[in-house]
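Reviewers asked in the last cycle whether our approach scales beyond single polypeptides. To address this, we selected a multi-component target totalling 801 residues and predicted its structure end to end. The input consisted of the following lines:
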Amino acid sequence: MMRPFDPARIVSLRRRLVWQFLVLSAVLVLGLFLVVGWVADRASRASQDAVLGAAVTAITEGIRSVDEGLELDLPYATFSMLGAMGDERIFYLLTVAGQGVTGYEDLPPPPTPATDMAPVFYGADYRGARLRLASVGRMMLIQNRLQPVTVTLGQTRLGQAAIARDTARSAAWAALGFMLLALPVALLAAQAVLQPIRTLADVMGRRGPRDLRPVRHPTPRELAPLLRALNGLIARLRAALELAETFIFEAAHRIRTPLSLVRAEAELALAETSDEATRIRLRRMVRAIGESSRSANQILDHAMVMYRTDQYAAAQVDLAALSRAVLRAIDPIAEMRDIRVTHDIAACIIQGDERMLEIALRNLLDNAIKYAAPEGHVDLTLTCTGTEATLAVTDDGRGLSDDPAQLIGRFRRGANVGDTGGSGLGLTIVTEVAHAHRGRFQLKSGEKGGTCALLHLPLP
Amino acid sequence: MRLAAFAVAVTYALAGPAAAWQSEDERIFGPEDAPQIQVLSVTDLAAFAPVLQDYVTRNPGRGIRYVQASSTEIYAAIHDEDARFDLVISSAMDLQMKLANDGLAASVAPDARGLPDWARWRDQLWGIALEPVVTLASRQALGDLPVPRTRRDLIALLRENPERFQDRVAAYDPQVSGVGYFLIAQDDQVSDGFWRLAEVMGRLNARLFCCSGQMITELREGRIAIAYNVVASYAARFRPDDPDLVQLAFEDYTFAIVRSALVPVNAPDPQGAQDLLSYLLSDPAQRLIADSAGVALIAGTGKPPVPQLRPIRLDAGLLVYDDRLRRAGLLSEWRAALIQP
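The resulting structure, written as structure tokens, was:
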């Protein structure tokens, strides 16, 4: 069974490439050594054979038939030449009608008798040495009879073998040298080959956790299947997420409408009844329905923020106008709770998603009003520096008891909220909007008690 | 056997019932009880003794048993009779070459710095001395005649004064002497004029000798006037104290034989042989050898060779001289020139 994450099994492609190069080069060097050795051996053997053949022919030419028999003047220069390449040992034999006349009489005869003037070449072991022999035969009139004369000449081939060996060795050294020169090149090549993989890994690593766009990075053809599989996976994941979000969106939406109907009916019933017990029950009902519909709204908001983050398209947003609009919309709730809302809004235009920013701001104010002291005070300040716009929402409520970072998590609520209803989604939504705009969301205790929520948005 | 008739009838020096080979002299150098390197050599004991003495002095733990024999005896001993020696030294280059070619010489690796390439064959045959071959003349016998400078001069001299040189010219007998045959073969190869010289010598009824030593003795005693082809190192032993001897190194060409050493494959002590060989090729030994030979083999160890000196190369070409047919042909030609009716 493969255990893909066993660290011992994790291989480096680069090391593997270099190793393969080294092994291949070693095989090539060996191959070159053998091939050059073989070729050099063949070439030098052929030229040596030519010399040997010429020598045996020259000796045969020197045989003269005379009255007393035959005369042979072994040519000194021929022997000297034969021995020249590496001081070879030389053996020869002259036979007439198969009988040795001069030379080494026990010299091995040719496998097929030489009959015409072309020398017959063969190898044999003689006196502890490997010999290359050439034999030439011809018919001669000796003492008035035509008789076959054979001259055999043999030499060791130590010099020739040494030359072939030297040539092969030189070739191997040269190949080894080239291999050493090629090693850094191979390292660079391995690096270059692996570069696209590294780049792709980099690109993937730099993506945000919610970035589900298909990978459009240019890659070599060999990586295309991987990329296709990756993009397919991303697409499936995205479809699944979208499906879930749509489902949540739909569900919240479908709950909200009947809830407002129920609430309206409950409020009507509250107005019409005079029975105190029923009124108390109806009032609790109305409050619970209010909480539920608020939660449904927040779930809708959250789903909307998620959706718009995926489809994020920045446009020019007049933050001041937006703030005023949200303040107007929130006014009735504040009034209902006798909360005084003040504001200090500077002119500020940013790049962003108006709908998301509106949701964020509404949730901030909604939260502030909810947690403000009864008949308390909520303040919205919009400031605009050179690099960022800051929306600050402060209330005079009970402030923070927990680490602010903990409160931003989904469905988290402070420990001191006890009696106040809430889903715990509000701050999550704000945080996500801030991230979508590459901004920051901060929650801290106010200077005079209460809480201060700060939404920083970068300016273009 | 009819076929035997194909080869010209030969009085082959080596033919005949093979008696055991014979040594001429023998001496032991160094302490009696020390391990001995067995040396079989053609070199005159008296001429070589200083070198061997120097070696045993430098190597106190070593001894040398030196056996002197003629070159043909040495060849027979090693080639045919399986004699056991560590180092074989001979001036008969063709025979040494044949021993090596026939696989009887072992490969050794002595320290041979400066040894010229032509003075060695593979790692089996090592030249240790250069021996010029000269012609000796008696000053007294020449009288007022001019000293010949070339073979042509010599031929003219002999032709013009037959009465003075009749029966008084000496040469090697190639049918008996290995070196003699080898030198005639060289002369035959190098010069056409040689056969005219041979004919002139034949007409003067030249006397033939087996060895240089005898020729020199006869010359010193005044019985002959000119000795052709004498190995100079022999002459060198007498020349300084005999003002009558004139050494002629002919200007057309003067051969120099390479005296070579080999370690037989069946040497009992090849390491000792290699040591001794290294010593023989070393500077001090080469100085001693060059001093007696009159010319340096390794440059810088003695007198440089004269320009006309023609060293004979140690190579496979030497094998042709030992060929039975070639030998027979050459000897019959020699007889035809020398032995005249």
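The mean pLDDT of chain A is 84. We regard this as preliminary and will revisit it once experimental data from Aim 1 are available.
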